[in-house]
Amino acid sequence: MPEYLTPPVSPFAIAFDAERLTLSPEGPTLTRRMSDLEGLFLDQSAWAESAAGDNPVVYTVTSSPVPEINRELPQSITTIFPGATAGELWMTKGHQHPDHQGEIYLALKGRGGLLMFDGERVEWLDMTPGTIGYIPPGWAHRSVNTGDEPYAFLAVYPGGAGHDYGWVLTHGMGSRAYLDASGSVDLRPYAG
Ligand SMILES: O=P(O)(O)OC[C@H]1O[C@](O)(CO)[C@@H](O)[C@@H]1O
Ligand SMILES: [Fe+2]
């Protein structure tokens, strides 16, 4: 498995293929299955049934080899597969940066949304190829696939900001994403 570069990192070029969704050289890759998303979907029994059943891959994250440490600026490509659990669209776990720092996402393929929550306010950005979504410091963020093909985006994020997944379990994300009868995104109050 590819690893992160050892700091101090020297200048280098990364070949970014927005069609094949690859970064070269490549760092670590992770795969999140349904069982990794415990406590996140509203319908816990539908989640449990899926996780105990075929336990599908919900999303993958491919990273560049830039290490996740302070002052470095790693990149990753996240691909969320299309699907819904009891109607709730497949999504990333979502996280807050313990060290409040900003982040940018560039949509590459498919159709998605960027849900952000600062503990009080909720924001939703529609993400289609070419959209840059800006995540300001202090806003927890989650990505959602709103289409019927994989939704992929490039992230560039501060390596020392960290990932606090517990924040989302405690505070929620403000809204949950569904589709209405016409196929439009239907954001519902978080409730649970
Ligand atoms: O970390 P989550 O919430 O699973 O989201 C998917 C990916 O998005 C990133 O935050 C990139 O922004 C990765 O660090 C992360 O693994
Ligand atoms: Fe982040």
From TrEMBL:
Pfam families: GPI
Domain of life where this protein originates: Bacteria
Keyword Isomerase: yes
Enzyme class, UniProt record, top EC level: isomerase
Domain Glucose-6-phosphate isomerase prokaryote: 32-184
Entry's EC annotation: 5.3.1.9
Associated pathway: Carbohydrate degradation; glycolysis; D-glyceraldehyde 3-phosphate and glycerone phosphate from D-glucose: step 2/4
GO function term, MF aspect, one: isomerase activity
Family label: Belongs to the archaeal-type GPI family.
Protein name, UniProt field: glucose-6-phosphate isomerase
Organism: Microbacterium marmarense
